[in-house]
Amino acid sequence: MGAITKAVIPAAGRGTRFLPATKAQPKEMLPIVDTPTIQYVVEEAVACGITDILIITGKDKRSIEDHFDRSIELEMCLEKGNRQQVVKDLRRISEMANIHYVRQAEQKGLGDAILHARYHVDNEPFVVLLGDAVVYSEGRPCIGQLVDCFDKVGGPVIGLEKVPKEKVSRYGIMDGQKIGPRTFVLSDLVEKPSIEEAPSAYAVGGRYLLTPDIFKYLETTKPGKNGEIQLTDALRRQLGERPVFGYQYEGLRYDIGNRLDYLMTQVEFGLRREDLKGPFLAYLKRKLKAG
């Protein structure tokens, strides 16, 4: 199969669960240590050979475009201060990939956001990475694992993560049959089931590899909860007509969606930084000892 080179990153949500921090900035720009969340997402795609990225934005999301653009005046100021490495790092951000933008004028759901990418992907398979979810993998990046699975099964692949039983009601949960290591063929997707109704403990994990026929299902999917077009609804219709697969990726997902998860993300990423780990860990130990 040909290489997959295109990615879609939906980043048009309002981020109301993080107000007031998101009143004037997108939640996707909230930093994890010193790097905006969405930069981690873009870097994951680029590390897997993606060269063409479409970010779906919305009102008040201009800072995302500014972040991935060059800032000549800032670079000149830094060069005068002999901070060449910082300049190099900033230029790398603007040169990672060909990044394009389209605005989702109305908040009509994830399915509608992806529908905005129809002409950009141009009848090719493409990957979708949610802009407010970071997946940390020590080996092959998450989206690359889905690409590898697609090369074997030849159909759409949904990234899955196994969640504790008591948390299944927070996610879309898959029903299906295991057909290989970490690989499933799906028979259904159930949105936020109760513990008793959940068909499995495998949740949809914010990463997808979709085929272009998904657009015909998105076009005719009726709005569901909150009047939004749900990607899950379109996928359920698709798997009724062709095989759709799930892959339990290796990695840890961090959702930048609520305050507690965000704080835990900061701690874990801070402890992975060689320049911060020592003093940060010492500080945490002192705090724990002090109670």
Can you offer a commentary on this structure?
The protein contains 11 helices and 13 strands. By secondary structure, it is of the alpha/beta class. Strand 2 and strand 3 (35-36) form a beta hairpin. The longest helix is centred in the last third of the chain and has 14 residues, at 259-272. It is globular and about 60 Å long. The model has no long low-confidence stretch (mean pLDDT 91).
Helix content: 25-40%
CATH architecture: Alpha-Beta Complex
Low-confidence stretches: none
CATH class: Alpha Beta
Strand order across the largest sheet:
5-4-1-6-11-8-12-10-9
H/I helix tally: 11
Quote the average pLDDT.
Answer: 91
Radius of gyration: 20 Å
| End-to-end C-alpha gap | 57 Å
Largest sheet: 9 strands, mixed
CATH-defined topology: Spore Coat Polysaccharide Biosynthesis Protein SpsA, Chain A
SSE ordering: EEEHEHHHEHHEEHEEEEHHEEHH
Structural class comes to alpha/beta
Q: What's the overall geometry?
A: globular
Query: Proportion of β residues?
Result: 15-25%
Task: Please report the total strand number as a whole number.
Answer: 13
Q: What number of domains?
A: 1
Name the CATH superfamily classification. Answer: Spore Coat Polysaccharide Biosynthesis Protein SpsA, Chain A
